[in-house]
Prior knowledge:
By secondary structure, this protein is an alpha/beta fold. The protein has helices at 18-22, 26-59, 64-108, 112-118, 120-127, 129-161, 163-210, 212-217, 221-274, 279-320, 385-392, 415-420, 436-440, 450-459, 463-467, 485-498, 515-529, 564-570, 572-581, and strands spanning 345-352, 362-369, 373-378, 400-405, 408-409, 422-425, 503-507, 533-537, 549-554, 557-562. The protein is elongated.
Amino acid sequence: MADQPARTAGPAPDKVRLRRELTTDPGRLTCALLLALGATAAALALPLLVQKIINDFSAHRSLGPDIAMMCVAAVGGALTTAVSGFLLARIGERMTYRLRIRIMDHALRLPLAVVRAQGTGDLAARITSDALLLRQVVEIATQLPLAALTVTCTLLVMVWIDWVLTLVTVLSLAVLTVLVVLILRRLKDNVTGQQNAVGRIAQRFTADLEALTTIKAYRAEPVAARALAADAERLRVVSLRGARLGALIPAALTLGNQLAMIAVILTGGARLAAGDLGVAAFAAFLLYLLQTVPSVSTLATGFGRLQSGLAARDRCNELLALAPESDPQDAGRTAPVPLPDAPAVVFSSVSYTHAGAGDAALRGISFSTARTGLTAVVGPSGAGKSTTLSLIDRFIRPSSGSISVLGHDTRQWPLDALRARIAYVDQAFTLLEATARENLQLGRTTRASDGELAAALDAVGLTEDIARLPQGLDTPLGRESDLSGGQRQRMALARALLSDAEIVLLDEPTSQLDGLNEQRFRAVVQDLAATRAVIVVAHRLSTVQHAHHVIMLTGGTVVDAGDHPTLLERCTPYRELVASQRVPAH
């Protein structure tokens, strides 16, 4: 795959390990478990207290102490259950918080091609529905051992009361256990399918919302709605399959419990009639049986929920296993020192093919740009102009050939250090959902002063526009308050102007500028080019005809390079491109 060439093997990815996550706060977890054990002990004591009360009734003894102990056990069990549940909820929320932070940070560091292949909706599902499924594992991890302990202790007490009835109970529940295990084996795969389907529908819905203006303009709501409905139908089908499996578990539990109750009552009645079992002991046994039912249900449903959590864990680990954009050795490398006399950028026989594409986007191109001044990359649509800029900033990697920045091969630069030397303005003039002040200062190592911000805004003609925002520079952009396309474009140019990078890449920076603001753009670029290397991809040749160096691309190859007058004289494709836009000769 051209986007991601082979890399040096790095350390294994840090997977989500539930045991480690659960024991991050051992003090709180221990306290929660002890309280839960106290609640379990209180529940186990109640049937024995009932047996004692019945015997005291028969013997006409005082019931006061027994009733008091029952009340203490009941209230104490309820309180300890509530406190234990709250502590576990805190542990779960902290675990979910850590997981979301890890996944979001890792996703932001993935290569662009990988993010696009995964889909933003599916990535978002990892921190929403998958994180919530993992959140419930905290409860389950405590409930399952406690439920198992409760069932074990209850069975031991039941054996002490009457081993024959206990044997009948165990045999009745054995069939139930086998049936539930068979159902749970299929449930995990279904949960994975559901989460994948959720990711697909979230991805399409997110993409439709981003393209809502186009959808409305072309009355394409029915088309978009049909595609979403198809995704929703696939989700419905797989969810319905899961619902069938889920519905079988409580049905099997109910049937098993009823069979156990019938068998115990018939056997117990026979033993009562034979004088082998007392009424008080039989009543206590029935209470223990009723008490065992919720614990057995917890075990069965808990294993089902655990399968869901494990499926979510596996999906998160699949994402965390994706290699980040930076090379593994970046952490141990220092940034090279730029060579003072080296060109800003040098391409040497560089080729590149987009993943899944048959034809190469670039074919063995070679060129260099001066350390300062304006270089324009021009050519018809599809010539490979934007791909060239993406290779410089290492958003993608060349299939062959080499690229040098400031005298060093880009492979020798740690990715963060390389991009610190480069300012980039993309075609969408992307702004973050942050304040205008924060957007202007992206990439800076030091905060810009108000004077520097004001000068940059004035240079691109945004001073009045920003002043009209509700909170000026401190207005959050992206939701209630936003900028028009042209304003966002000028904001992105101001951000490049404020950057201290030696190289400035501008991808179609004048596509939404009117004549007045295009003149401002030329002044900004002239100011930048006086001390930096500015590389501009442009369709509108009027904005770059005064470039010191023009590179003409056609069909992924460099057909010629020189200044505007020279190319007009000797390069037929360039002359045709100029003629199509009626650009003056000087």
